[in-house]
Amino acid sequence: MSKKEPSKKNLALFSKNIDPIKFELIRNSLFFLVNEMALSLVRSSYSGILRDNMDFSTGIADRSGEMVAQGLSLPLQFGPMPDAIAAVCKRWGKNMNKGDVFILNDPFEGGTHLPDVFFIKPIFINKKLFCFVCVCGHQIDVGGRVAGSNASDSREIFAEGIRIPPLKLIDAGKQNETLISIIEKNVRLPVNLFGDFRAHIAALKTGENGIYELIKKYTTKELIKYFKELLDNAERITRNAISKIPDGVYKFTDYMDCDGVELNKVPIKVEVQINGDSVIVDTSGSSKQVQGAINSTYSMTKAVSYFAIRSIIEDDMPNNGGFFRPIKVIAEEGSIMKSTIPAASGARGVTLLRLGDAVLGALSKAVPKRVSAANEGGPTLYSFGGYDSTKNPFIFVEIFGGSWGGRPNKDGIDGIGHPLCNQRNIPVEFIEMEYPLRINGYGYVPDSGGAGQYRGGLALFREFKYIGDTPCQLQIRSDRSYTPPYGLHNGENGSLSKNILNPGTNKEKVLPPMVTFILNPDEVVRFIIPGAGGWGKPENRKLENLLYDIKNGYLTERYARKKYKDVLLDSNTKH
C-alpha cells in the first residue's frame, strides 16, 4: 500500500467558462426538482410500499442517458436507470416523440426485478431530444405465483409475474389501452396498481414542468453546458478522492444463508482494486446463479458497487453519473451477480445488500477509519396476500429494517433503514387500518447490537396476528440467520435474525429465512431482524455510554457484565 497525491490534472474544480455561482444554482435547482418528483409520488400513490416504505427513486438524465440528478430516495434504483434508458433507446431509437412515456420491468431488458417498474419520459425542445425524467417504483403486485411477486422460492422468472419490455405506456399523449388491458388481467390488485402508475406519471409531469421552467431561465444551450459540467465535476471530485486511498488489492467474502429454496451457504466474493484515481470492483468467484429468486442483474451489481465506494468518499459532490465513471465493475456471466435467463430475481435485494457488505468489508482494509461495521445485512421483506370472505383480494408488502453498524467514532444507529435502501417502516396505525393484521408488538431487541467501543445498532422486531376470515399466503425473505453481521477492528458480530410462527405457544416453530407458506386466521408470526456489528474493542467503550445503554434498556446488566466486564471492573477500581 502506498500514499498518493491527487493527479494534478484533476485539481481544477471547474472547467473553463463555468460560472461557479450559476453552477450551484443549477445543481440545487435539479436537486430540488427530483425531490419534488419524489414528494409528488408519495402524495399520490395508493400502496404502502411506495407511500410509507418509500421504495422508489427519481432522477433526471441528459439526452445521452447519463444521470445528472437523483432524489433523496432509493440508491439501489438510481444506479440502474442508465441501463433502463439505454434499453428504451435501443428498442425505440428515433421513434420517441413528445408526449411519450415508456414503461419496463424485464430484468433481461433494462429492468432489475419484476416488481420494480421504470417509467421514463423523454423531454423534447423544438423537436430535439433534450433530456429524460425517470421514476422507478416497487409495485405491490405484478402477478405470478405468489402475491406480491417477490417470493424467494420461485425457480424461474416465468413464475414471478408479467414481464414488460420497453414499451410505450403513453404514445404521444395517448394511453396504450392494449398494454393496460394485458397488465390488468395479470395482476391481483389492478385498482391499486394503476393508481400507483398514475402517481408515477404525475411525478414525471412534475419533472417535465420543472425542466421547462429551467429552460425559461437558462436556455437549452446553457443547461446542456452545465449538465456536462455537473458530470465532469463529479468525476473530478471522485478521482481526487480515490487518489487519496492507498493503492492495493483488498478482498472480502461474505455469505448468505439460503439460495432462495434450500439452506445452502451462498458466497459473495469481492476484490477491490485501487489504482491511482480509479477503482475496479471484481465479483468473480461469487456463487453461480442459484435455483431460487435471489439472482441479481448486472445493472444492480454495478449500482451497489457504486454506492459502497460513494459511502467512503468524504467530499461533497453532486450525486450523478459522473461519479460512476472512475469505477469499473466486473461480474461473471451466469453468476448470481450477472444472472441470465431464466433466472428468477424477485428477492434479489438480499443478495445486493450482502454485496454491499462485502465491498465495504474489503474497503475497511484500505480506509479503516471510514468504514462502519456491518449493518443489519438486509431488511426482512414479507408479503401477506389473500382474500376476504367476499373474495376481495388484499396484499400487504413491507421491507422491515433496520440498524446500522458501529461507526469509527460513534455507535451504530438504532431503528433506521439500511443505507442502501433509505427506507422507513410502515406505521402501525396504517397497517391495522388497511389490512387484516394486528400488530402485537414492535420495538428494539435488547443486547442485540454487536459489542464494541462503538456498539452496533439494535435489532428490531415486529409481531403480527393475522385476523382475516380465510387462510392467506405469507412469503418471507430474510437473511443473516446463520452468518451474523460482522464486527470490525475487534468489535463483535451482531445478533442473528429469526422468524417465529406462533411464538410462546405449543405450536411455536422457527421458520427458514426464506419461505412461502399458508398462514391461518389467528396465527401469529414474529419477525426479528439482525443486530448490527460492533466497531473496536469492547473494553475501550466509555463507561458513560455503557451506563446510558443500561439505563435506557438497550443493554441488560447481565449482558453488560459479560461483554463489557473490563469497563465495569476498571470503573469499580477507580471508585
Percentage of residues in strands: 15-25%
The neighbouring-strand order within the major sheet is: 2-1-5-4-3-6-7
Number of folding domains? Answer: 2
The biggest sheet, with number of strands, parallel, antiparallel or mixed sense and barrel status, is: 7 strands, antiparallel
Low-confidence stretches: 6-11
Helix content: 25-40%
Radius of gyration: 24 Å
Number of strands: 22
Tally of DSSP helical segments: 13
Structural class, from secondary structure content? alpha+beta
First and last CA, distance: 45 Å
Please describe what this structure looks like.
29% of the residues lie in helices and 24% in strands. The model is unreliable at 6-11 (pLDDT under 50). The protein has 575 residues and is α+β, with helices and mostly antiparallel strands. Helix 1 (20-44) runs antiparallel to helix 6 and helix 8 packs parallel to helix 9. It folds into two domains: 20-235, no CATH class; 372-575, no CATH class. It has 13 helices and 22 strands.
Mind sketching the topology for me?
Blueprint: H1 20-44, H2 48-51, E1 56-62, E2 67-70, H3 75-78, H4 81-92, E3 101-104, E4 116-125, E5 128-138, E6 167-171, E7 174-175, H5 177-184, H6 190-218, H7 220-243, E8 248-258, E9 263-275, E10 278-282, H8 298-310, E11 327-330, H9 349-363, E12 380-387, E13 393-400, E14 402-403, E15 414-416, H10 428-434, E16 437-445, E17 459-466, E18 472-477, E19 498-501, E20 509-510, E21 514-519, E22 524-528, H11 543-551, H12 557-563, H13 565-574
Parallel strand pairs: 10-11
Antiparallel strand pairs: 1-2, 1-5, 3-4, 3-6, 4-5, 6-7, 8-9, 9-10, 12-13, 12-18, 14-15, 16-17, 17-22, 18-21, 19-20, 19-22
Helix pairs in contact: 1-6, 8-9
